[in-house]
Amino acid sequence: MAKETQMAEFDVIIIGAGPGGYVSAIRCAQLGLKTAVVEARETLGGTCLNVGCIPSKALLHASHLLHETHENFEKMGLMGGKPKVDWTKMQGYKADVVGQNTKGIEFLFKKNKITWLKGWGSIPAPGQVKVGDEVHSAKNIVIATGSEPSSLPGVIVDEQTVVTSTGALALPKIPKSMVVIGAGVIGLELGSVYARLGTEVTVVEYLDGITPGMDGEVAKAFQRILAKQGLKFILGAAVQGVDAAKSGATVRYKLRKDDSEASLKADVVLVATGRRPYTSGLGLEALGVEIEPRGQIKTDGHFATNIKGIYAIGDAITGPMLAHKAEDEGMAVAEILAGKAGHVNYAVIPGVIYTTPEVSSVGQTEEQLKAEGHAYKVGKFPFMGNARAKAVFQGEGFVKMLADAATDRVLGCHIIGPGAGDLIHEVCVAMEFGASAQDIALTCHAHPTYSEAVREAALACGDGAIHV
Ligand code: NAI
Description:
The protein has 15 helices and 22 strands. It has 3 domains: 5-149 and 276-344, FAD/NAD(P)-binding domain (3-Layer(bba) Sandwich); 162-273, 3-Layer(bba) Sandwich (FAD/NAD(P)-binding domain), CATH 3.50.50.60; 348-460, 2-Layer Sandwich (Enolase-like, domain 1), CATH 3.30.390.30. Strands 1, 2, 3, 4, 5, 6 and 17 form a 7-stranded mixed β-sheet that branches. The protein has a 5-stranded parallel β-sheet with strand order 8-15-9-10-11. Strands 18-19-22-21-20 form a 5-stranded antiparallel β-sheet, with helices on both faces. The chain has helices at residues 2-6, 19-30, 46-51, 53-71, 87-111, 165-168, 185-196, 216-228, 284-287, 323-337, 366-372, 387-391, 420-432, 437-441, 451-460; strands spanning 10-15, 35-39, 115-118, 121-125, 128-131, 134-143, 147-149, 162-163, 177-181, 200-204, 232-234, 237-244, 249-255, 261-266, 268-271, 275-277, 310-312, 351-353, 358-363, 376-382, 398-404, 410-417. 33% of the residues lie in helices and 24% in strands. Strand 12 and strand 13 form a beta hairpin. It is α/β, with parallel strands linked by helices. 1,4-dihydronicotinamide adenine dinucleotide is lined by residues 152, 181-187, 189, 204-207, 212, 238-239, 272-275, 321-322, 352-354.
């Protein structure tokens, strides 16, 4: 066995080149491990870079600017009419953004001497990875295969009329109408892209509110703001099925309050009802790798499966399905494989929704604290009191900070407003250091910046905010 291990072709083979896998590979290589990554896609970067986070951000940016020209340009004395959308060009811009990023990873692979094994990988036995007809050996294997959209009974996705996020990012034309099933992150980000491009968007959601798990007050404000932007919501509605026709499709749903049935027709239906771990074809069953009841690969606190030398990270294991969570796990497992102490602090993982305004959160919500019976205080500050936000028509939203009633330690922060996705990291760092709200409140923040709103919320946990 020792001899076999010494002769292994690689120290580590990582299956999947998404944010979890590629980041892990780079860290493995930096730590001196001979590293290979198996990836079947033509380009590196996984779902996030190719058909997820990155292309959606390009469309969110372009559609946001279009919305700005309609809403605010004339107010600023910028005359000259509203631009028309050239959808083909916008898709080209999106493809360029994706291309630059995926090529960037290819460059990083070369720089770090990481071998890209092109093809689908499977694990015929511990220490072996099969790619095409070749079997490669490795001391350790990391599964970073990510996730795929979960199916909904009665719904057949064709990626033309009935689409997942992948199809929604590459529609042949801007639809006149769209039904989004699921008011989660994907549904609201892509729904708001199309709403800004002129599509009539209706979101059908099973629960009585949007974005499950989000701080309730923020979720309510978010829904109000999105409704003002033109998104329609049908809440408490369980989708029963989708019937695709020659053109468009009909979504059938049942209202949970009285079991009444109704339907809605649209040019395009976006199914955004969650994702599930993507582990098929790896040979896990034959290996005896333990799987959680909901399909995730079971791992211990060090990302190890029950089979020696096989590890798993990212969307394929438990925890939030977020690119940055996968990246952190990728770095941590690399450190563990290199004999160091890799660690992820799951209590401080930010979440961001990249709509306009952005929504972000870290730590506990008010609902969670109440349920725990934790004595807490709330410091809130509206962006209407922030000069910078008002100057750019972004006075909607607020920062809500939650701190321990006795010790003032920051327990969570929830932001809806301009730059929320970046602002949250100041609070993440504070929480990593076990800071109090007063620590943030006593830190000088440049004026005029959006980040002053975070400080004001921290001040509101103590003697009070200044600009309200
Ligand atoms: P999600 O889990 O965030 O939301 C799905 C929604 O669909 C839920 O509100 C659920 O109640 C609803 N739903 C489920 N079945 C339904 C039915 N039959 N009828 C009506 N509504 C129904 O899932 P989503 O948005 O698809 O995202 C998948 C994953 O990808 C999430 O874990 C998300 O965090 C991640 N993601 C994160 C992004 C970010 O961080 N910005 C961007 C995109 C995805």
